[in-house]
Structures are given as C-alpha cells and as structure tokens.
Amino acid sequence: MPTQVFASVCTMDCPDTCSLEVEVTDGRVVNIKGTSRNPVTDDFICSKVAQYAKRVYSKDRLLSPMRRVGKKGEGRFERISWEQALNLICEQAQAIRTQWGGEAILPYSYGGSNGVLGQDTTDKAFFAKLGASRLERAVCAVPASAAAMGVYGKMAGVAFEDYVHARGLIIWGANPKASNIHLVPYLKQAKAAGAKIAIVDPMCNFSQREIDLHVPVFPGADLAVALAMIHYWHEHDLLDWNFIAQHTSHAEVLLEKAQPYTLQHAAAIARIDAGLIERLAVMYAEADPALIRLGWGMERNRNGAQAIAAVLAMPALLGKFGKRGGGYTLSNSGAYRFNEAAMVASEAWNTRVINMNLLGKVLLEEHNPPIKMLFVYNCNPVAITPNQNAVLAGLQREDLFTIVFEQVMTDTASYADVLLPAVTFLEQNEIKKAYGSYALQYSAPVIPALGEAKPNEEVFAMLGRAMGWNDAAFAVSTNDLLPRAAQAMRGMGKEISWPDLQQNKIAFFDFPGAAPIQFQTVFPHTADRKANLAPDNLREHAYEYLDGIDGNPAYPLALISPATDKSINSTMAEYNLPELYLMMHPVDAAARHLREGEKVAVRNQYGEVHCRLQISAEIRTGVVLMPKGAWRKASLNGRTANALAPDTLCAVGGACFNDARVEVKRL
Asked: Does 53 map to a domain?
C-alpha cells in the first residue's frame, strides 16, 4: 500500500503548536514532520515530536483496560474488558460516596496532549455529578496567569513573527531553545537587523554571538531585579508619564514599592553585579521598539506572581506599546475567549478545592473526608508533582482506589488499581488552541486507535452512563463536540466555521491583521481598559519580596528543574532522558572536589537523588540544575528532581520548585 500523508497538529503542552504532516504506510506511522500550514512552524519541528511514533508503538503502550494483581508500584496487571473496568470504577465510586461523600473522590489532571475536547467537557460533567473534590491545576502557570489577568486582563501578546521588528529584547525566565524553538529564528533575524538581546535566567545556552547580555539572576530574586530597574528609570526620569497617565492605574503603588530597591540592594539579593542590572535597564529603556518574552521559569518560586507582575508593568511604565515589536509576550491562550460552557452542560460544582501541588500531603494527612479515590488523567503526578516521596507514599495506600487513564505504563500508572488505555494525539479528533502562535487547528486521526484505547470525552461519557445517569452530557459524542468547539471561539475577530476548519485544518485571528499590536489593535481586558499596576488579586502582598527560605547552611545550593529539549513535561523522557544528571558550575564542583561524570547524592530535607554530575559554565555559581520530567528509572535510586522540590505554595497557589535548596556530595 502506498504511503499516505495526513495533516495533523501537535497538541502537546508547548506554545508553538506545530502543524504537522504524518506519513502512514500500511496503517502505521512512519514519519512525522513540520509544515508551514501554521507559518510559525516553518517546516521544522522538535526532535521530541519527530520521534513520537516511539510512544505510539511503545512496548509499554496500554492497549486494554487492566486490573492490578500485584502490590502497588510493581506494575503487575491482568487484562479486563471495558465493561468490567467501568463497572469496577462505578461500584467503588458509589461505595465511597455512600460512606465518605463525593469529596472523598479526587480527579487529578493537567494539560496532557489534549485540546478543547479532552479537558473540562464530559470529564467535568462526570466529576461534578459525583460531587467530587475540585482540583486547582496549579503545577504550572497559575502565578503567571494571575499576574497577567490582574495587570492586563490577559491581553493578547506580541506574535512571535513580530519579534523581528524589535530592537531590544529581554528573554526573562524562558529557554526558547528547549521549549519554544520556533522563536529562535525570529531572534536571529532581529539580531541580524541590529537588535540587542538579553537573557535573564540562572542558566544560559545562548552563545556570546547570539546575545548581548546575560543576567544570571539567583532563583527567586527576579522581583528584586525588576523593582531595581523600575527604581532606576524613575530616578533617571525615564518613565513615560503621558502613557502612565492615559493608560495605567495605580502606578504610584508600584513606584512606591520600588523605591527601596537600589541597584546595589537588588544586586545583593540576586547575587550579581549591580552593573548588570544597570546595563539591562539602560538597554531596554533605549531600545525602540522593545519587548519582553516572559517565561514560566520566573514564576516557580515564592515570589513568582509578584515578579511577573513587576516585569509585565515595565512596558507600560516606559510606553513601549503601540508599535509592532513593542510590548510583551507571556501566554496568548486568553486571546481565544473560549466559551467552555457551550461544550457540555454540567451541574453546579461547589465542593472543596485541592491544590494539585499538595497531592502528597493530601493523601497522607488527615482530612474530612479523606481521599479514598484518585482518578488520574492527562497527567503523570509521580514525575511532575512536588515532594515526590510523599506522593509515592500516598499512592501506596491500600485503602486508596486509584484509576490511571494513560497512554503508556508511566511511573504513576504502576500504582493504579485500574488502568484505562488512552489514545495519543495521532489517534484522536481534537481542536487545539495555541498559547504561543495565533492559530486554531483541527487534528483528525491519522491512524485508528490502537487496541482498545479511547479518547477522554468518550470515556467520561461512558462512565456517566455506567453510573446510570441520563444527563445530556453523557450522551454526547466526539462528532457533537467538534462543531460546538469551533462555535465557542469568541476572541478570534471572526466567526469560526466548523466545515471550514475541518477542511482547512487551521483558522487564523483577525485583530484586525494576523498579529496584534498592543494598545493599538488590542487593549487590556481590565475593567477600565487600562494596565492595572497594582491588581486586586495581588494587592495584599503587592511587590513584597519574600526571602524566607535562604540561609540554611546545610543546603547552600539552589536547585532549578527547567524544561529541556528532551521531553515535554514527562512525555518522551522515557526515551530521551535515559540517565538523570545534575548540572553544576565548575567553581562549585571544585569547592566540593567533584569531577565530571561522578556519581553524586543531591539531598535536602525532602529527599535524596542519586545521579551523574555534569559540570558546565552554562549554569551560574550557587545554582544547580536537574532536568524536569525525568522518569524514576533515569536515576540511580528511583528518585528525580521532584523528590527535592518543596510542596510549599506562593501567594496565589503556584508551585515553588525553584525554592529547593540542596547540598551535593560524592556517592
């Protein structure tokens, strides 16, 4: 049979949301490559998705429902039918509801590889009907979203293709080479046209030819650096008072909070030279147009939301809006204005809320009611949730009934009582919003679902019917939801036709124009259409730097666990990250008499990880790096970076991974 080529889209958790061409021979995926259907993709994709067929056809792929027959964590299961699995889950759910109430059931999910069909449709209806506890999906993006909503009401950000117009760029808390690769060509074009580029991050993998300045801020100190820059501009009369008066509110609050943060004070907090902060402040102030790409790295600490709010305020204080290449980019997901309620009718859901970062504590500590059923989907909590040792201990509870709805046998899946097989994005219908590029894309299955795997929206509808519920939510099909999803897009500047989207596979925004100009074609969605520089949702602790965890001499090194080019969260790490490593600066390694490739123990009060040492000047002194998303098999003792991550929360509930402090010794 000749090779067939199908249009698809990557639905993984990445801002680029690439358009794909998938080659299929004899019903099997043989090649995945990028196309220019989404211009941002520009015919190339990351190596992770290029190799995605490995996961589709993995020896560990889940192809049927299964029931545990061994001890939790052993990964021993027997095959059962879908009917048996659904009945077993429903029997347990009914019994738990009767004895403990619905709040003893906890759904646990995040982004997975789904779009608007696979999350918050039939799943939400099912758990709302059960009266289950609600999950605050706060492992990522909550501080950034709170700041962006408070300051600008999630105004649409500068499009990647408009970065070429900027003459000054700050990449703050992001690593485009790892998790936003289609931004890199635009950065190179901007640089060739004369732009100055600065990186603000504890690590940097850009060469001196690619950037002009690296500010290696200490984890958690971004807020102090941002306030010092604002203080500097105020002191040197560089603020745009006309823009501030016309387009902002509460600027006086921010300026007052910045007053104590001299360059020297912030430099001491950030453990850098004050001259670096001054150079960054001058570079940005002088550039026209100038923009800031904010990443999620800067939110992963106790000061995350306040730091992002301060950085978001910068273009408003200097009047950097109103032209192409000027402004900021964070997440562009809010631009779609998706009407979720139009998808599936759901009962009111007003039960208690549990922050997903506290999973270990919630499973181990006394609560009223205790969690007796855990339903995991679109997520691999053993690999992504803080305080890994507590999570593992909680999952080992014999009185906890755990369902894992997953594609492959993950670290979490091995602790399940019931396993349900999920489709991959190459086997499902899905409509995907991007949070980087401005394109809505439709993906049809390029191959039939393997084995008995099913999509989310179908499984939760099946569960509702198995419970004996006759609600319309549990009678819907994928074909019902696809046109509803297209019609529910309210922010694209035009009506979205499902037949057109189905045929063309992609629909673009009209702001007017394909890319927005902030404060010209798009404006804040705040109540007064102004930038609120002291937003209500952050005002209780407005721009207050918290320095409460430093100073324990037993754990002098800050640990960061950023995204890498090896995995998308934990997906594909099973192949691309076979051996866990710790990256350390040569100065810190020499102080501990450690050598490249040695086995080391990385420890703190939460746990201990054994891995190999990698010595590199890409990371600053006083900071070590262990990649995000690794599977337990990658380390020497079955623990990963999350075993060292605190399950403390920032003021708005975000995870504080980068507040981990550790010591490193030779094994």
From this structure: no
User: Is 159 in the same domain as 293?
Assistant: yes
Structure tokens at 111: 């982004």
Task: Tell me if 415 sits within 8 A of 73, measured CB to CB.
Answer: yes
Q: How confident is the model at residue 114 (pLDDT cuts 50, 70, 90)?
A: confident
pLDDT attached to residue 548: 67
What's the CATH code of the domain at 649? 2.40.40.20
pTM: 0.96
pLDDT in tens, 577-632: 999 999 999 999 999 999 999 999 999 999 999 999 999 999 999 999 999 999 99
CATH of the domain at 279: 3.40.228.10
Q: What are phi and psi of 406, to 5 degrees?
A: -150, 160
Shared domain check, 328 and 370: no
Total residues belonging to the chain: 667
Q: What is the mean pLDDT of residues 245-269?
A: 98
CA–CA separation, 166 and 432 (whole Å)? 29
Q: Write out the residue range of the structural domain in which residue 592 sits.
A: 557-666
What does the alpha-carbon distance between residue 103 and residue 114 come to, in Å, rounded to a whole number?
Answer: 26
How high is the mean pLDDT of the chain?
96
Tell me, yes or no, whether 549 lies in a domain.
no
CA nearest 633: which of 272, 266, 383? 383
pLDDT (tens digit per residue) in 501-550: 999 999 999 999 999 999 999 999 999 999 999 998 887 788 999 986 75
**Tokens matching residue 351:** 């039960």
d(CA 140, CA 121): 21
The two beta strands, 248-249 and 105-109, are unpaired
Q: Are residues 174 and 323 in the same domain?
A: yes
Between β-strands 599-603 and 661-666, what pairing exists: parallel, antiparallel or unpaired? antiparallel
Same domain, 324 and 386: no
In percent, the amount of the chain with pLDDT more than 70 equals: 99
In the predicted model, what is the mean pLDDT of residues 358-362?
Answer: 98
Please state at what angle helix 274-286 crosses helix 222-235, rounded to 10 degrees.
Answer: 60
In the chain, the number of structural domains is 3
Q: Which amino acid would we find at residue 656?
A: C
* DSSP code per residue over 483-527: HHHHHTB-SSSSPPPHHHHHHHSEEE--SSSSS--BTTTB---ST
What are φ and ψ of residue 471, in 5° steps?
-60, 150
Q: How far is the C-alpha of 434 from the C-alpha of 441, rounded, in Å?
A: 8
- Own/partner contacts of 238-243, CB < 8 Å, gap of 24 or more, are 238/285, 238/318, 239/317, 239/318, 240/317, 240/318, 240/319, 242/319, 243/316, 243/318, 243/319, 243/321
369 & 287 share domain:
no
Residue 216 lies in a domain: yes
Average pLDDT over every residue of 548-560 = 85
- Using the predicted structure, report yes or no on whether residue 139 has a pLDDT greater than 90: yes
290 and 197 together in one domain: yes
Given a cut of 90, whether residue 552 has pLDDT beyond it is no
Q: Quick one: pLDDT at residue 550?
A: 58
> Residues 334-350: pLDDT tens digits?
899 999 999 999 999 99
Pairing of the two strands 168-172 and 290-294:
parallel
CA distances from 317 to 256, 343, 534 (A): 13, 40, 13
**504 within a domain of the structure (yes/no):** no
Is residue 242 domain-shared with residue 372, that is, in the same domain?
no
Q: Are residues 292 and 325 in the same domain?
A: yes
CB atoms within 10 A of CB 28: 11
| pLDDT for residue 539 | 75
What distances in angstroms separate CA 121 from CA 178, 252, 613, 652, one per listed residue? 31, 43, 45, 26
Q: Give the DSSP letter string of 351-417.
A: --EEEGGGHHHHHHS--SSPP-EEEEES--HHHHSSSHHHHHHHHT-TT-EEEEEESB--TTGGG-S
